[in-house]
Amino acid sequence: MNELSNVSKNLTGQPMFEFLSEIKEAERKGRKIIHFEIGDPSFQTDASVIESAKQSLDRGETHYTDSMGLRELREGVAARIRASLLYEPSVNQILITPANSVIDFTIRCVADPGYEIIYPDPGFSTYESVIKYTGMKGVPIRLKEENGMRMSPEDVEKSITEKTRLIIVNSPSNPTGAVMTEEESKEFARIAKKYEIYLLSDETYAELIYDKKHYSPSVYDACKEYTILLSSFSKAYDMSGWRVGYAVGPEILVKKMGLMLQTIISCLPEFTQRGGVAALRLGKEYFESKMKELRKRRKAITEGLRSIPGVRCLEPEGAFYAFPNIEGTGMKSREFSRRMFEEGGVALLPGSDFGAAGEGFARLSFGSRTEKEIEEAIQSMKQVLEKP
Length: 388
Prior knowledge:
By secondary structure, the protein is α/β, with parallel strands linked by helices. It is 42% helix and 13% strand. The protein has helices at residues 6-9, 15-28, 47-58, 71-85, 99-110, 125-133, 153-158, 182-195, 251-265, 270-279, 284-306, 333-344, 371-386, and strands at 34-35, 94-96, 116-121, 137-142, 164-170, 198-202, 227-232, 245-248, 321-322, 346-347, 349-350, 362-365.
């Protein structure tokens, strides 16, 4: 048998999608499962966004487009950043691409195999997956409960060596829901500038913050020198299946990332990008309505988890993930996850899926579940733990 490449052998992907396949199979056999595993909000894409895509299809916009993205969409992204972060990047600093690909493109464009990438642990699984398959050396920074599960600039600076090429920060955080402070944001920008290291700021959930304010390290260089801002339409605009996101960064880097997109997938469909243009026109009422509902769900799941013996849970400050500490149950993360699924019909992810420091935790995505479903799941989890 022909051998596969080392690159392919090192691919790990996203564990939640493997679990989703198992869940779907159980449902096909008639089992009722309450889903908390995938970060896919239950809110439907706004009708104006869908109508924009339909009109694009009716106009016959089904052909190749500029591989950097529709100019109108890039201009819309620039305007949105001007309104929210008070600087305006040029369209040449913006690449329209699925958000996941920004992680891959950035790492491969700024570092060679053997160089070091600093990233949060626990953190979004794609960070570690890309670092591993590309042959880079991952330097995980442990997120601590006593620091609200936020990444510490001090810990990051202590981990920098002459081989460090990139620091990845994520606020609000997947999986912890933590939101960085203004001082932390400023410190990450200072560190990147001082050591001349690229800084990838994953701001996928920036619009989904409950009682705090979003701070972006990109404001300190306007993404012209060392910062790359990553964002997506998936979570903020409930467009997870549209696969539209964007990167904002230094022009020379963004141009190279555009060539990677061009090489791998040529371009994104025009009609999905037209949907993105329409999404950027949605007003604050759209987010206010959604956040009102998410606050209810956050309260239900946080209070519910805290009522389970052996479980403690910080209140998420942003996104729609609860990340409870389950060490008091006497189980490891994977055992806890398996028992909840097999015995309780509750699908959640082990914290260890998000890095070694996630051991002893679990992640529940409450953006896709109603208050009633959350309450039902909590009761099922309690019943599992009551069994001998």
